[in-house]
Amino acid sequence: MKLHRLDTPGSIDGLVLHDEATPAPGPFQVLVRVRANSINYRDLLIARGQYMRNPVKGVIPLSDGAGEVAAVGAGVTRVASGDRVAATFARGWIGGPRQPDTEMGDRGGSQEGMLAEYAVLGEEELVKLPAHLSFEEAATLPCAGVTAWVALSGFGTLTAGDTVLVQGTGGVSIFALQLAKLFGARVIATSSSEEKLARLKTLGADHVINYAANPDWEKEVQAITEKRGVDVVVEVVGDFAKSLKCVRHGGRISFIGWMGGRKVDLTVTGIIARHISVHGIGVGSRVDFEAMNRAIDMHRLKPVVDRVFAFEDAKGAYACMQSRTHFGKIVISGA
């Protein structure tokens, strides 16, 4: 089978195409024919050697993959041959709070990932896909989709009429916009591109702000909300100073990433005085994934795919992520 390995972590040039024997599933394991993958910012950091943990040398990268069950091992009951499935992000995290023993079980970093023609997975690590989604669309769900779902609903109730602030046009932010609209929320979205702001409006954003043209854009958020502030900030940049100025008294900040750099200005007194809840979001469990899929299926939501790269051009997908020019998700087709 064809697969990519990160033979030399440190740059995307360390990604190398290999040809190896197709594995066979053991007891309670499933052989999945991977039909599509998607790439996340985390995957780029891993390839460049900039992630919080060093990857295993030679690891198969990428956490996200979707395909169909090709074969099952003895004792498997959750899925059957031909089922359309995706792998969960973290091995062993079925439901409830994430435990320490699942922290190092992340695909594509410390554990083998999904950028391969076939993958062997435990049956408990799989979820079935909404029927209306293509494999390319479904491959976007395991990390970015679930992260956005948990950011909105994992630590509190999001109700119709609430206001959500999303930042930028990456995978998590676009999913957060789409999912927030399913809840009936009002969405304020930011970008530095007028073209992308127009596209955010077509996806349902109620208000858009060009943060490059408006350096003090948090003041515009306050004006839009009549100085009340938003109920939830989906924080992917790491600019806590501005997020705290945007969130209402008693509101929530779902902290996901640090695309603006790892140095975070966290004003503790502002959090305490205004009763702000700050939650670190580490994707989500299989239960979260299944709950999100039910909502996606009911509303026939379609993930936003920016580009689809050929399997042999996986480096092109990494380069696209590195350029930060994409809108939504970057996908790699199956081998």
Word description of this protein:
The protein is built from eleven helices and 15 strands. Helix content is 28%, strand content 26%. With 335 residues, the chain is of the alpha/beta class. Helix 11 (314-323) links the parallel strand 14 (305-309) and strand 15. It has two domains: 2-140 and 303-333, Medium-chain alcohol dehydrogenases, catalytic domain (Quinone Oxidoreductase, Chain A, domain 1, Alpha-Beta Complex), CATH 3.90.180.10; 146-280, NAD(P)-binding Rossmann-like Domain (Rossmann fold), CATH 3.40.50.720.
Query: Mean pLDDT score, rounded?
Result: 94
Secondary structure category: alpha/beta
Give the total of domains: 2
CATH topology of the largest domain: Quinone Oxidoreductase, Chain A, domain 1
CATH homologous superfamily classification of the largest domain: Medium-chain alcohol dehydrogenases, catalytic domain
Q: Note the overall shape.
A: globular
> Biggest sheet, open or closed, and with what strands and sense?
7 strands, mixed
Strand count? 15
Question: Into which percentage range does the β-strand content fall?
Answer: 25-35%
What is the percent of helical residues?
Answer: 25-40%
Uncertain spans: none
Would you identify the CATH architecture of the largest domain?
A: Alpha-Beta Complex
The number of helical elements comes to 11
Tell me the series of helices and strands, N- to C-terminal.
EEEHEEHEEHHEHEHEHEHEHEHEHE
Estimated radius of gyration: 20 Å
CATH class bucket of the largest domain: Alpha Beta
C-alpha end-to-end distance: 9 Å
